[in-house]
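ok so I'm stuck.
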Amino acid sequence: MDCEVLLCPQTAGRGRAILGAMIACAATAGVKLIVGEQYTASSKWLMTYGLGHAGRRSWVDSHLRSGGRVIGWDLGYWDRDFAMRLTIDKDHPQDLLTDMDSSRFEKEGIELRNDFCGDGHIIIAALGRKTRLLLNDKNHRWENQAIALAQQAYPDRKIVYRSKRPEKFQLIPQADGTIESVLKGASLVICRHSNIAVDACIAGIPVVCSDGIASALYGNDVVNVIQPDYDARLRFLQNVAWWQWRPTEALLAWKHIIKILN
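replied:
not stuck anymore, here's the structure
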């Protein structure tokens, strides 16, 4: 098995950490690597960090169009200082989720909470910079549409704005603080595909999303919101844990990837 790995100089530190770990144990996993900074289309498999990065997106799309397989990494669903999320052939792996054993999630020690409040605030999770560039959304078009839908459906609820980076947004208040504190007492999270959807699942807050791994559990209808029970949330998170890996688990990650691609 051959795999081309794109390890570009501008790759973020955490991305370099997971790619470096995957490179280090590839031979043990039985994978022959071609590592470089520029795409060469020399292997059936292509691995990189940040599929939405403007400088690599055209390479990823070209590889998929040619019938190749793409292994993508990005910031993890939890423990984001170390863990990285995995996807194959798509930006997000919701279509690849299957019922797996609970062992990986149980090791995380994550306790599901019930922070939901029926008349609590609604959180609009902002698009990230890479997504905004991909969608050519320069003027918060997505956020404005989400706010309008939320205001129409829930005119009496407070709506707040959660950004990945501090930024001013004049239409609604900015929700600062930890994700846990922002979720406390919320009634709904609206996002496109943000990792906050997984945080909301842990906290027991329903989610509206059109993409991302959480779309395997939640819907995209602001009015008819899906509110899964405890067992459904737990089963979902147990399966998500198989799409999140740390550099120290690189060999196990290779085994998981090889099983899917073969």
